[in-house]
């Protein structure tokens, strides 16, 4: 037995007395002791070194990104609704008062809108809503068509009719949104319909790029009025009909026309 202890402890190790505890185990035991007593490790910078008990209860999770996301959605809606005017400068504190939040999430949301081309930073003042003329809107429509028309034609050749039938409720939703006469409500349903079309391509990058272009094309809002919104929504149903029938010429013509007068 004595030889076995020597073998486990190594040559020259003592053969009597309590067994030696490995250094790693001693360190682990000490760490457990600190945890049980609720004290911090000595010598650790930024931690308490006295016997302060931890505050009971679960630490709440602060979701700053959630607040910023809600403010971003609200600002996008205000842009499409025409509540934030092109050319006007808005400060983060004033907008924060409007939404009942601090200036920080508003500033973060506005910086995202600046990346999307909806606003531009004005140093020491805030953010100016961009002014887009007819030329820029026409360029956006052309880029959207260059991306989406080939995709729609490919989908028309490959997607079975029943898949297009599944998108009918979304087209009907755009018609209901148009009937409300609210540009912001219609803009949201319009994006949802086009997103569902492009998702069928299976190309996530395409969906994200197309949706970014779609958002850019939605402000400043085009003053179509309720009749114009209803006409725009009717083109969704017509497009589904052409896709179902695999009428490629009509599909291409409808997409071009839809983008030319898009909200």
The termini sit apart by 89 Å
* Rg (C-alpha, Å): 31 Å
Following the backbone from N to C, one meets helices and strands in this order, namely HHHEHHEEHHHHHHH
Helix content class: 55-70%
Q: DSSP strand (E) fraction?
A: under 5%
How many extended strands? 3
Mean pLDDT: 80
- Structural class of the secondary elements? mainly alpha
List low-pLDDT spans.
1-50, 54-63
Shape: elongated
| Number of separate helices | 12
Report the major sheet: 3 strands, antiparallel
Which strand order spans the largest sheet, edge to edge or round the barrel? 1-3-2
What are the key terms here?
mainly alpha; 3-stranded antiparallel beta sheet; disordered N terminus
Explain this structure to me?
With 263 residues, this protein is mostly helical. It contains twelve helices and three strands, in the order H-H-H-E-H-H-E-E-H-H-H-H-H-H-H. The chain has helices at 2-9, 23-37, 64-80, 92-99, 103-115, 134-158, 161-165, 168-180, 183-199, 204-217, 225-245, 248-260; strands spanning 89-90, 119-122, 126-129. The protein has a three-stranded antiparallel sheet. The chain is elongated and about 55 Å long. The relative contact order is 0.10. The model is unreliable at 1-50 and 54-63 (pLDDT under 50).
Describe the protein's topology.
Layout: H1 2-9, H2 23-37, H3 64-80, E1 89-90, H4 92-99, H5 103-115, E2 119-122, E3 126-129, H6 134-158, H7 161-165, H8 168-180, H9 183-199, H10 204-217, H11 225-245, H12 248-260
Antiparallel strand pairs: 1-3, 2-3
Helix pairs in contact: 3-5, 3-9, 4-5, 6-10, 6-11, 6-12, 8-9, 8-11, 9-10, 9-11, 11-12
């Amino acid at each position: 037995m004595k030889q076995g202890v020597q073998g486990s402890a190594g040559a020259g190790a003592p053969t009597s007395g309590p067994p030696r505890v490995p250094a790693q185990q001693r360190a682990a035991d000490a760490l457990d002791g600190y945890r049980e007593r609720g004290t911090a490790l000595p010598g650790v910078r930024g931690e308490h070194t006295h016997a302060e008990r931890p505050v009971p209860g679960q630490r709440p999770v602060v979701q700053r990104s959630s607040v910023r996301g809600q403010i971003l959605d609200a600002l996008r809606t205000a842009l499409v609704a025409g509540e934030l005017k092109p050319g006007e400068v808005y400060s983060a504190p004033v907008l924060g008062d409007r939404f009942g939040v601090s200036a920080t999430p508003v500033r973060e949301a506005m910086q995202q809108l600046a990346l999307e081309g909806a606003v531009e930073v004005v140093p020491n003042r805030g953010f100016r809503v961009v002014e887009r003329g007819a030329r820029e809107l026409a360029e956006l429509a052309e880029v959207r068509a260059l991306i989406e028309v080939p995709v729609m034609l490919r989908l028309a050749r490959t997607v079975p009719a029943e898949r297009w039938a599944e998108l009918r409720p979304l087209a009907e939703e755009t018609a209901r949104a148009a009937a409300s006469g609210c540009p912001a409500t219609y803009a949201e349903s319009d994006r949802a319909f086009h997103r569902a079309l492009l998702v069928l391509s299976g190309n996530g990058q395409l969906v994200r790029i197309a949706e970014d272009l779609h958002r850019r094309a939605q402000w400043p809002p085009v003053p179509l009025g309720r009749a114009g919104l209803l006409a725009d929504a009717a083109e969704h149903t017509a497009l589904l009909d052409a896709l179902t029938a695999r009428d490629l010429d009509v599909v291409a013509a409808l997409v071009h026309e839809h983008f030319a007068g898009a909200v």
